[in-house]
Amino acid sequence: MSAHPIPAVKAAAGAVTHAVNCGDCGLHDICLVEGLSPTELDRLTGMVATRRRVKRGEPLFRAGDRFDAVYPIRLGFFKTRVTSDDGREQVTGFPMPGDILGFDAISAAAFQCDAIALEDAEVCVVPFEKLESLTREFNGLQRQLHRVLSREIVRDQGVMMLLGTMRAEQRIATFVLNLSQRFAQRGFSPREFILRMTREEIGNYLGLKLETVSRTFSKLQDDGVITVEQKRLRIDEPTRLRDIAGATCAPE
Amino acid sequence: MSAHPIPAVKAAAGAVTHAVNCGDCGLHDICLVEGLSPTELDRLTGMVATRRRVKRGEPLFRAGDRFDAVYPIRLGFFKTRVTSDDGREQVTGFPMPGDILGFDAISAAAFQCDAIALEDAEVCVVPFEKLESLTREFNGLQRQLHRVLSREIVRDQGVMMLLGTMRAEQRIATFVLNLSQRFAQRGFSPREFILRMTREEIGNYLGLKLETVSRTFSKLQDDGVITVEQKRLRIDEPTRLRDIAGATCAPE
DNA sequence: CGAGGACTTGATGACGGTCAATCCGTGTGG
DNA sequence: CCACACGGATTGACCGTCATCAAGTCCTCG
Fold first, then answer.
1. Are the beta carbons of A161 and B90 separated by less than 8 Å?
2. Looking at the partner chain, which of B147, B204, B247 has a beta carbon nearest the beta carbon of A84?
3. Residues A48-68: pLDDT tens digits?
């Protein structure tokens, strides 16, 4: 994988400063930007002076790190995971470009989960204090921030439904459809995409073991519903996949 | 169970208007009120002109209802649940006094879950538009609102951990400890309390069947860790219960 | 006081977990 | 450039946990 060109600016380790324009970002509908006036957009853009690159496998932040910014994703897949005191891990999501990382950190002023890049990635750095004060000026931005926070809560409800009530096959089908929809929202093919995460990470997220994930993929392939080879996945029969998922409220 | 006295004021069905004082509420640390200045408190109180009573088994709201207020709970236990298109249900929480209902509704301007009273209950009615505009005036209140929203997200992560990685016994132990802590926060005994929900509701929340819940309670009782008789539960050996729960990050 | 829901307990079986062997693809170093 | 090593993925055999089905008891509430 080719390295990102190194920007010719002086910057803190892993931090990059360069021209940012929220209006040109192409992730409008998903990020904070939806429905803002030009003035609001300008001010938001002015605030996001910094970006940060994260290399594959590296954490953007870890549970316990001090919170002072949220991170809209520009580029690349992440996983978020929480770890219990006795060492069990739970993957809580696979955020992708347009999603915003860090909202779990507001309540305790410290991050509650790890955010690990699944591939070389880039995020915007939005200082949260500044964002808060900006939302006091602009109703539209405030509204949007609350919407995004609430969307996160709704997403989590969907994951609970998934973990609480679904069989293995249903979980996998739901997971695949969810990815498909999110790719579609972002203008990518909903029919064919790359799984950036391992079977183990998928399994952990879905409350299954990696062997079960693998077996279930194989079964769905035998049934002609999908084609999987390694990380490449194609949905051959969306309708049947949806039937298997059971018309569920897919998380996110 | 004796009926609530009917207030001698003209009010919408199920709605009651009477003097409210957030400062006297006794749910400070949990609700929106924490750390507000007297002025802020006054204005918040002024906004919460209405309370609403909900009878046992009745919904405070249902998925799809139009959103215009959030509901801090004054009195009584609720359950929240989401329902998938194909009819599966998932209980997503058991909010109690001090918790606030309705944040899932912001994103789509409609509630995404049902909130059902598990006993006769009373909530404050906080019109969300007014709350938003008040938070634009008062930093403290804004900060607190964001904290509460974020706390909800963190709570959900804990539930995912529970559903994704724990065995039945561990789930039950975690569930009991969680209730215990929340009772303690509210000034009630953490050692002995009433389970307001049925075994089936507990099971649904924990991703187990009601028989498994019953059996697991019985086993923990045989082991001398807790005493359960019907809805009454006592924790006899907190330490062992914590061991079983596995020092987990207990949701909420 | 009666009826129906809630709870308990037992017997059985299925789904997914566990353990293990093998294959594959990728990236690394000689 | 090739060989090898290692992590990831697949597949099989077996087993355990929890779901399912069923019967019976006990509260609770009307």
1. yes
2. B247
3. 868 899 999 999 999 999 999
